Amino acid sequence: MSNLNTFNLYLLSLKKSFQDRLREKKFKSSNYNVSLGGIQPHRIYESSNIFLIQDLINHDPIILNSVRKFTTNLWKITNLEEDKTKKLHNFCWLPALNIKTEKELGCLIVDQWINNFSNYTEKYWTLDVVTMRLIYWISSYEIIFKNSDLIFRSKVINNIVKQTKHLFKNISLVNSGVDKIKSLAALILVGNSFEQYEEYTQYGLKNLEDELGSFINKDGFVKSKNPEDLFWTLYFLVLV
Hints:
Chondroitin_lyas, mainly alpha, Heparinase, 11 helices
């Protein structure tokens, strides 16, 4: 019986590995990249949520020093630890920049990121990284959008639309619980900010209700009984 269970687990592992490889191949295809295109929203609503995302902002001196030192060469850095690389690409440091003196720096680095990674890249387009990048970009309205060059604004908007569509298409792959709530919050933020993309708000709110129903018990506590899960659940609910 034990050998049979081991064999079944092995088969499941092979199946998952095969499915993952097929999915990655699809994501990297030109057809998939084209499918992520969308219309330019007629209007962007200001969504300066920096004061709400203080607990999400990363003030890691290594990351911030790299941002300020390397600027246009930032995305060529290859010797950072995996965790710091992930944080660099999810832009958790962006709201930590000084809006008055470092706005141009922030826009320059966002622009360079889009130049290098506008299409799906396995390492930097994982759904958790995309989720947080959307939250930080949308919440950093004054850095990215306010009084910025129209061509740059259009470039960022197109890429946000692209990343959001990727998240929307694949949100079923996100684990239930806080991760799913976080991703739904990102969709809602985009829908609230971009005219003509209200469908993301509607989808996010509907599925957020369903997710909360399965994640929180009748007394209003998370079923995992983990205080951290409760904190982040409430946090992302307030954010949207």
